[in-house]
Write a structure and sequence with these properties.
alpha/beta; Rossmann fold; 35% helix; 20% strand; NAD(P)-bd_dom_sf; Succ_CoA_lig_flav_dom; Succinyl-CoA_synth-like
Length: 720
């Protein structure tokens, strides 16, 4: 965060360079606060770097020791008369700002601050972090952390972390299932980032980097993600985060990852919004912070995990498997119960287990006992496996048949000396690239079994749900890559906030958005019963009357709406009733008049809303049920702006989408007018991103009689 001095312009800032490969691949490293005392984190930090194969220059900085591990110490980093790519700072927090100044003076390109006691503690400690950022902006040095667990580069043997996981590396004898498909980890929790690493290695996955972002005073998670997108040694990216501090940077990195064909898996912590916040609109109540994240994930094809194990399961699938053509699973199992359980679980993830053709069943039946099943799941029975592994041969038959899109082998993997997996044949299936293949054991997995699977280029999971999740997310990613690029549509005019306005009533909102085709042609604002009757006579009965006030968002709650009024007498009575109700229930409200509208025909009701998310900007929400949207909870979200094609795809993504196709004998609905409207709303949201807090159009009524759509209400709320 900027300090008060910088805000007053007293500090000259320089253009900060982007994160370069010298961060992950430093040719020289200095350790400020180095010690030979291995009971201290900073002692282990320098020891790990010395003992894990780093071949660059090392400079321990200590005024108390002459040398550490054979490396001569310098009292200050400015005493090092050589280039320094990375300085690692591990001293008490109160000394860190001066240490960073010294690092900048010494010409260090990046500083990794391990020390804690900054903004994460609040209070005066926040000012310490502000001083560090002042130095970065004034000198151009980049800051990683503070409060970081550091990073590890597994390709270049660069260790700048105190994580105890490093001590396990010399004992890691797990084969690498996909050595050329390395995974990079970006984690806002250092401990959990390295936990993902160990869980992945337990399955045979290969990793390029693990980075702990710390407080992200300068460099953000998006910066590290972007660096990994450009890193030829990283093919898959896993991010664990609580929040994204640089939404625009994250979106740029996500877009670049999709274009590079590098899957990104995000485990977002803090998904539950802290209670249903008191919201001014249905849209706000149904568009919490995590909804905005999911909207962005959807746009860029990011694969979401809910915990570390899910992140590892998804990473295992995308790192070891080719992309599938579809979602049909072929299962080969030695346990009938295991096959049934897997089929049930896979269906929960939107996968299908189709019955195989009679011809393919006949071929499989030549390999299995008479009492086995060749339907799918193919149950070889334990007897069938006892005469020699047949799973791989059956998988090869299904691979060649074109009847399935992915394969799963289900085995018992408890024995240490044998398992019914043939690594050579599994590897050949994966290398041919036609079908992904994973394995599940319904027993615990022996070390031998896990090694055997990894030698075959695959992973052996002990959780069928993780297999189903991994294959489902793999199919999602394939769908995203094959989908046509979003057509953003045509932008509309510039929007300017009306002077002094906080909320626009329906009549005002329609006028303000008229340049986006949302003007409500034919509506009349009346200030007397006679004016309302004249308007009704002009547009034809039946009509609707609604109170108009920027202080009343939910008009029905104050008795401010009357519908289906058939004649002048009804209009006169309704006008008086609405005005009197408003005076009773909202006596302080400013009333602009009563809006007269033509009564819209019945149809399928939607709500279209916008919330301007603090991280990602305007997010459009579509929901089924109109004013009852919170009851049904059938909603989708997407970042603005987008074109009509995307809008129609979002409509088709609602659970209630069958209503558009003539459900139970009703006439089908042409979605083109609704898609065009939703696209225009998204462009209005983008045009007003600096001034709009929320917009809602509710209900939007879709008609099946060829009359298009009706927008029955609208409201605009501006940012404070």
């Amino acid at each position: 965060m900027p300090s008060g001095r910088e805000a007053r312009g007293e500090i000259m800032t320089v253009q900060q360079p982007p994160l370069t490969e010298r961060f992950f691949w430093p040719e020289s490293m200095a350790f400020v606060g180095a010690t030979s005392d291995l009971t201290k984190l900073r002692g282990r930090l320098f020891a790990f770097t010395r003992t894990t194969g780093y071949t660059g220059k090392l400079y321990p900085i200590s005024s108390r020791e002459a040398e550490i591990g054979g490396y001569p110490c310098h009292a200050r980093i400015t005493d090092v008369k050589a280039p320094i790519d990375l300085a690692v700072v591990a001293v008490p927090a109160k000394y860190v700002p001066d240490a960073v100044e010294d690092c900048a003076a010494a010409g260090a390109k990046t500083v990794m601050i391990i020390s804690s006691g900054f903004a994460e503690e609040g209070g005066a400690a926040t000012e310490l972090q502000a001083r560090i950022l002042d130095t970065a902006r004034r000198t151009g040095i980049r800051i990683a952390g503070p409060n970081s667990e550091g990073f590890w580069n597994g390709v270049g043997n660069v260790c700048a972390t105190f994580s105890p996981v490093i001590e396990t590396l010399p004992h890691d004898d797990m084969p690498h299932a996909a050595p050329h498909r390395r995974i990079g980890i970006v984690s806002q929790s250092g401990g959990m980032g390295f936990a993902i690493f160990t869980r992945g290695r337990n399955l045979g996955l290969t990793f390029s980097h693990v980075v702990s972002t710390g407080n992200e005073a300068d460099l953000s998670a998006a910066d590290y993600m972007g660096a990994m997108v450009g890193d030829p040694d990283t093919q898959v990216i896993v991010m664990l985060c609580e929040t994204i501090r640089d939404g625009a940077g994250f979106c740029r990195a996500a877009k670049a990852a999709a274009e590079a064909g590098k899957p990104v898996i995000v485990c977002k912590l803090g998904r539950s919004d802290a209670g249903a916040r008191a919201a001014a609109s249905h849209t706000a109540a149904l568009t919490g912070t995590h909804s905005a994240y999911r909207a962005v994930f959807r746009k860029y094809g990011i694969l979401e995990a809910t915990d570390m194990d899910e992140a590892v399961a998804i990473a295992a699938a995308v790192a070891t498997c080719p992309l599938p053509r579809g979602r049909r699973v072929g299962i080969v199992t030695a346990s009938g119960g295991g096959g049934t359980a897997a089929a049930d679980i896979f269906s929960d993830f939107g996968l299908s287990v189709p019955e195989l053709s009679p011809a393919l069943q006949a071929r499989i039946e030549t390999l299995v006992p008479p009492h086995a099943s060749a339907l799918n799941p193919v149950d070889t029975t334990a007897q069938g496996q006892s005469t020699g592994p047949v799973s791989a041969e059956i998988c090869e038959m299904m691979e060649a048949s074109g009847e399935v899109d992915m394969l799963v082998a289900i085995v018992s993997a408890a024995r240490e000396k044998s398992v019914s997996l043939e690594p050579g044949r599994i590897k050949a299936i994966l290398e041919r690239g036609a079908l992904p293949m994973l394995a599940w054991t319904y027993t615990l997995a022996s070390k031998h079994a896990k090694h055997t699977a990894a030698q075959g280029g695959s992973v052996l999971s002990t959780d069928a749900r993780h297999v189903g999740l991994g294959l489902s997310k793999l199919a999602d990613y394939a769908d995203h890559l094959r989908a046509p690029a979003d057509d953003a549509g045509d932008p509309g005019p510039v929007l300017t906030r009306p002077p002094g306005a906080r909320v626009l009533s329906e009549y005002e909102a329609r006028r303000w958005l008229s340049g986006y085709g949302l003007g409500g042609a034919g509506d009349v604002l009346a200030d007397t019963p006679d004016a309302a009757i004249a308007a009704a006579e002009g547009m034809g009965y039946p009509v609707v009357l609604k109170i108009q006030s920027p202080d009343i968002l939910h008009k029905t709650e104050v008795g401010g709406v009357r519908v289906n009024l058939p004649d002048a007498a009804a209009v006169r009575a309704a006008f008086g009733n609405i005005v009197s109700n408003t005076a009773v229930h909202a006596p302080a409200a400013r009333v602009d008049g009563v809006l007269v509208q033509k009564m819209a025909p019945r149809g399928v009701e939607l709500v279209v809303g916008v919330v301007n998310d603090a991280t990602f900007g305007p997010i459009v929400m579509l929901g089924a049920g109109g004013v009852s949207v919170e009851l049904f909870g059938d909603v989708v979200h997407y970042p603005a702006p987008f074109g009509p094609a995307r809008a129609e795809a979002l409509l088709r993504g609602l659970k209630s989408a069958p209503l558009f196709d003539g459900f139970r004998g009703a006439a089908p609905i042409d979605l083109a007018p609704a898609a065009a409207l939703i696209s225009r709303i998204s462009h209005a949201a983008a045009a007003g991103r600096d001034i709009i807090a929320e917009m809602e159009f509710n209900p939007v009524i879709l008609h099946s009689d060829g009359s298009g759509i009706s927008v029955a209400d609208a409201v605009v709320i501006f940012r404070d």
